[in-house]
Amino acid sequence: MSTSADSQPETAATYDASRYERPSVTVDLAIFTLKDRELHVLLVKRRNWPFEGHWALPGGFVEMHESLDQAARRELEEETGVQNVYLEQLYTFGDPERDPRTRVISVAYIALIGADMHQLHVSDESIDVNWFPVRELPGPLAFDHSKILDVALSRLRSKLEYTTLAFQLLPEVFSILELKHIYEQILGEQLDKGNFYRKIKEAGVLEPTGQLREGRGRPTHLYRFKRTRADADFVFRWREAKVEDEA
Predict the structure, then answer these.
(1) Which residue, among 57, 60, 187, has the nearest Cα to 131 in the 3D structure?
(2) For the chain, what are the domain ranges?
(3) pLDDT digits (tens, 9 = 90+) for 208-245
(4) Could you say which DSSP state residue 203 is in?
(5) Cis omega before residue 50 (within 30°)?
(6) Other beta carbons less than 10 A from residue 243's beta carbon
(7) Model confidence at 1: pLDDT above 60
(8) Residue 107 per-residue DSSP state
(9) What is the CATH number of domain 165-241?
(10) Which residues contact 60 (CB under 8 A, 6 or more apart)?
(11) What is the mean pLDDT of residues 74-89?
């Protein structure tokens, strides 16, 4: 019995990629820093349609020769001028209607930048770039970027109990009070000073520097992150350090 040509198995010689629709792929970055003692996210104001003039998370299309991580690191460097910082793949957003231009699937990333590292750049696709407090954004974001940001913040909060993620936002040398403030900013919760000090010291991730910072009151002891301590060993039950609501 003869077999039609359409039912023949494809081979390297007969495969025709043009027979299949191919969606575009982008990377979008939720880039966080601690600025003026408050958690900020980097946003760019779009130059072109769609969402012209709207603020959005930085990002762009993945080039054919790039891996996803390479594209994310390229976009991060183009917007901030920094390399070799914490970067984590967050989630894939693929609603068919998320981009009015065409079918676009976005792979979102989280990046954390120390307050002393960033140097912003306006790209060809934007007319402005700035840091905004996560609690005070400049209106609804373009595309589904408000949803991406919500998922990114949820991921950060969930990881604080079992990773040393918060240390990525600190300078090389810091006080425990500054570390406590970062936890409070990410969590949106007030933590008890005494309980926080005790539990973070018990976690064994701090290394005294022997340095003191002079101020209006008693000098403050400064620490650095003990980089030999693996995240696999880190447990910090921040909920036990919360300030309970008054009845």
Answers:
(1) 57
(2) 22-156, 165-241
(3) 999 999 877 789 999 999 876 556 567 777 777 777 65
(4) T
(5) yes
(6) 13
(7) no
(8) E
(9) 1.10.10.10
(10) 26, 27, 71, 75, 125
(11) 89
